[in-house]
Amino acid sequence: MSIADLVHIPDLVATAEQSAAWPFEEARKLVERVKRTGQRSVLFETGYGPSGLPHIGTFGEVARTTMVRNAFRILTEDKIPTRLLCFSDDMDGMRKVPDNVPNRELLAEHLHRPLTRVPDPFGEFESFGHHNNAMLRRFLDTFGFQYEFASATDYYTSGRFDEILIRAAERYQAVMDIMLPTLGEERRATYSCFLPISPTTGRVLYVPMKHVDGKNHTVTFEDEDGSDVTLPVTGGNVKLQWKPDFGARWAALGVDFEMYGKDHQPNTVVYDSICRALGGVAPEHFVYELFLDDKGQKISKSKGNGITIDEWLKYASPESLALFMYSKPREAKKLYFDVIPRQVDDYLTFLEKFPGQIVKEQLGNPVFHIHGGHPPKVETVSDAENHSTTVTFAMLLNLVAVANSEDPQVLWGFIRRYSSTVSAENHPGLAKMVGYAIAYYRDFVRPTKVYRAPTEQERAALADLAKALSEHAGSTDGNALQAVVYEIGRAHFPDLSGKTKSPDGRPGVSQTWFATIYQVLLGADRGPRFGSFAALYGVNETCALIRKGLDGSLMTEHQNFLDSRG
């Protein structure tokens, strides 16, 4: 089923026109633009600076832009052709050597040369720029984005930008009049919107122009050897400074929509003004907040202080990453390894809710936008009595912990005991998640677990829980087992605040009870729905786990593990 098929769903287009989901809000602006200009197609663009290995922020721009593109196609009933152009600024000079690449001394010899003329430190591609472009395309292809890739080097050297460069030479003063007021006094004295490529050293030069000939479309400057050089602005001899380049590219390509990070927001007026000065129509914009690392600092491609695309995919699915990108794009968010489990399980929750929602709710559900309007069915496992459950990432992480094994077959043993018909073949999503959970547990969870001894009150409650659960030996009914957990909790840790009550009006259960279970038995502050966990792990095994928590074995085993790591 395609986007075109979606528009035939009753009330979908009309509901989309009122939807508060941010992709529809942005798409409605484009609909108005089309009405205003009468244009017959729409071009979406994303920019990529390949000065370092691609990071997730780059992926986020493509994912979010695709969401707006799909929303636009729904609103226009897929009658207006659209394109998504992923543009790499690979002709930029390499200003510094990235911290996270091999053979750094090799790169140091090529500072300030265009990235596509810098050797690949990995020894795999024609240049460092080509390498980083390939890394970006590999992920975008893996995720299945529909896009066209564009290289600044190709556009500058092939002549595709010649027309806009000639116009920039002819309207040089107009562009400079926009730029100069934004610069400090010292920079104004030497600034030019043109950056020539030195014919002697091959480096991108930040030098003043001695003359810009708008008639012959040439620039004259002092080269690094002290000689005056005159070059045509066409054919890849020069490139534009990054702010003029933004606006000139919009004008040259006819870009209708581009999003970028908040650090670009102060320059939006400059970009738009240059675009108009060069005869273009400024596109619609969407400004998103920046991603932060675990210390609250902005992530950087050159520093490598965030998560790489490959790192996220080692521990979680592309869909979980897309959910992270969809959620609250105008709020600064921490992008580090500890956000992964929540994203995986939130994705499963949204997927589970989708089929039962009305159209308005579905259009606001992130999975609608992650999957272009066609989210798959959530994978569930069912026992012999047809009790169904969704196996969550948190549940798998705790299964790995209590099983004390990183063998996938051990986890599948628990899962098959719950549901004899489940397999990696008929549950491919679960199969991948088992591998993700083992890798994440090994690298991040196990080293940070902190088990504690129960208090006397907690000891009595846990002993009662083991006794009560033992009466349900062999049960795989997660709801029934959860009811036991609640009943014991209500007896020992009732919620006396009155904020929570059971359906029969009795007090609810204090969160202290659940914290006790997680901290004493799982070595964590949070955990899965414990009844569902017991159904999957096994009631007898869960009772044995409780006994180990009571006699201190869990604390001893974990301390032995920590000691073995030194």
Which tags fit this structure?
566 residues, alpha/beta, Rossmann fold, 2 domains, five-stranded parallel β-sheet, three-stranded antiparallel β-sheet
Give a short summary of the structure.
The protein is an alpha/beta fold and 566 residues long. It folds into 2 domains: 1-101 and 112-151 and 289-360, Rossmann fold, CATH 3.40.50; 381-564, no CATH class.
Write up this protein:
The chain has helices spanning 3-6, 12-16, 22-37, 56-75, 104-108, 128-143, 152-158, 162-170, 172-179, 185-190, 242-253, 268-277, 309-315, 318-326, 340-353, 359-364, 366-370, 393-403, 408-418, 428-445, 456-470, 478-492, 511-522, 530-537, 539-551, 553-564, and strands spanning 42-48, 82-88, 148-151, 194-196, 211-213, 218-222, 228-232, 238-240, 257-261, 284-288, 291-292, 333-334, 381-382, 388-389. It contains 26 helices and 14 strands. The protein is elongated and about 90 Å long. It is 48% helix and 10% strand. By secondary structure, the protein is α/β, with parallel strands linked by helices. It has two domains: 1-101 and 112-151 and 289-360, Rossmann fold (3-Layer(aba) Sandwich); 381-564, no CATH class. A hairpin with a 5-residue loop joins strand 13 (381-382) and strand 14 (388-389).
